[in-house]
Write a structure and sequence with these properties.
This protein is mainly alpha-helical. 67% of the residues lie in helices and 1% in strands. Strand 1 and strand 2 form a beta hairpin. The protein starts with 34 loop residues before the first helix and ends in a 5-residue tail after the last helix.
């Protein structure tokens, strides 16, 4: 059985599910840093967690067989199958934090795996919802969940169930200060992401609205990507691992937030650039930001640099839909005239230096190895 060594001193505040499950202190021997080895192991764990959750619902909610089958099918279809980058970041951060603190990783490994899947389940929750809002057709190489026969808009409720699933896992595996800190973290990051999604969706639907391009400032853009991307893709995995390793102080978490937000902004700017200039066969998709009237880094920079004539041309051609390839080419022509690729290269260098400085600033209280490795991974990426 898994034996949990509580890294906090506060008594349990969890009223509804009994004592937290106790993980053992011996590490599994899995090389979590090797993504190829780690992903199959992650899949084994989600089968265990999903079966446990379904069993809990069946036992405590008088769930009929048809409901058990439907819930199992939904979890199996929507949760596994991604790259698990966010989940693996939880594990890598936990490994480096244990190294920094002189802890045995085996004492937190199971908890780190639980949190890795909590982050991935939240991702699944967002993707199920996003696909409905975007009228998407495929996700991870198969039809979106809402497109599956017999599902439809029932997927909205399924997204809510996915969120409940992750909170079930937190409640089962954590106690005391860790439980409180994790519940607060996941609720807070979920709300931030939802607000970022709202701003992003508003920008897409604002085509033709008078003065809309005047609102697309760097401050507005940074707010969107900070809340939509940086918190749940970077800060949530790192903060989860820190809490699992007993680092719950405001100083530590605020330091991690500052680093992760800077990295998240850098990452999204790269995403915007690749959407426009990346090769579809490399990035795995055809860029649609110009078609979709997205508020992107390229657009914001162009609006700061262009002439009145260029502005009029851009406004007439930006966000005209995927059918209007000529309009997209016109916008890209303006970007070329403004030499935005050169501006982007300078931004890449500057953002690397900014992130590096923040990592050094907090190196005495945070596992800098994690953040240095992550920074090198995302810097000048091609996909």
């Amino acid at each position: 059985s898994w034996r949990y060594v509580d890294l906090t001193t506060s008594p349990s505040t969890r009223p509804s599910m009994g004592s937290a499950v106790e993980p053992q202190e011996v590490a599994s021997g899995i090389n979590w840093r090797d993504a190829k080895e780690a992903r199959p192991e992650m899949n084994k764990y989600i089968k265990e967690f999903s079966k446990d959750f379904v069993g809990y619902i069946e036992k405590n909610y008088e769930w009929p067989d048809v409901g058990v089958e439907r819930l199992t099918r939904m979890l199996d279809y929507t949760v596994p199958g991604g790259k698990y980058n966010r989940g693996l970041l939880v594990l890598w951060t936990a490994i480096d934090t244990c190294k920094m603190k002189g802890l045995n990783f085996g004492s937190v490994e199971k908890k780190a795996v639980v949190l890795a899947w909590c982050v991935e389940i939240l991702q699944a929750c967002f993707l199920v919802s996003d696909d409905i809002m975007d009228n998407s057709v495929t996700r991870r190489g198969k039809p979106c969940w809402y497109k599956v026969q017999g599902v439809g808009l029932d997927a909205i409720n399924d997204a809510l169930i996915l969120e409940s699933f992750l909170f079930y896992l937190i409640e089962k595996y954590f106690d005391g200060e860790q439980y409180v800190a994790l519940m607060k973290l996941f609720h807070d990051v979920s709300l931030k992401t939802q607000m970022g999604q709202m701003l992003d969706t508003m920008s897409e639907k604002a085509k033709g609205k008078e003065g809309i391009f005047d609102t697309f400032t760097m401050k507005y853009y940074t707010r969107i990507i900070k809340y939509k991307t940086a918190f749940y893709s970077f800060y949530l995995p790192a903060a989860s691992a820190l809490i699992a390793c007993g680092l719950t102080s405001k100083e530590v978490l605020c330091g991690a937030e500052e680093i992760c937000v800077a990295m998240g902004i850098k990452f999204q700017i790269e995403d915007d650039f690749l959407d426009c200039y990346g090769k579809p066969e490399v990035i795995g998709k055809v860029g649609t930001d110009i078609f979709d009237h997205k508020c992107t880094w390229l657009l914001v920079m162009a609006l700061q640099m262009m002439t009145k004539e260029q502005r009029a041309t851009l406004e007439a051609n930006y966000g005209n839909g995927i059918e209007d390839k000529k309009a997209e080419a016109t916008v890209k022509g303006i970007y070329k005239d403004l030499k935005l690729e050169e501006v982007y290269e300078k931004q890449e260098t500057d953002s690397y230096a900014e992130c590096e400085a923040l990592i050094n600033k907090y190196s005495s209280i945070l596992p800098s190895e994690t953040f240095v490795r992550l920074l090198k991974k995302i810097h000048k990426r091609e996909k």
